[in-house]
Amino acid sequence: MTRLRVREATKRYGDNTETVDVFTNLNLSVDADEFVTLMGPSGCGKTTILNVIAGLTPLTEGTVEFDDKSVVAGEFPFGYVFQEPRLLEWRTVGKNIEFVLQAVDVNPSEYDSHIDSVLTRVGLADERDSYPQRLSGGQRQRVNLARALAIEPELLLMDEPFSSLDEVTARHVRQDLLDVWYNTDKAVLFVTHDMSEAVALSDRILFVDREGNLFDEATIDHERPRDFDDPALRETETRLTRRFFGSLQ
Question: Taking every annotated instance into account, which residue ranges of this chain make up the domain ABC transporter (predicted)?
Answer without folding.
Answer: 4-236
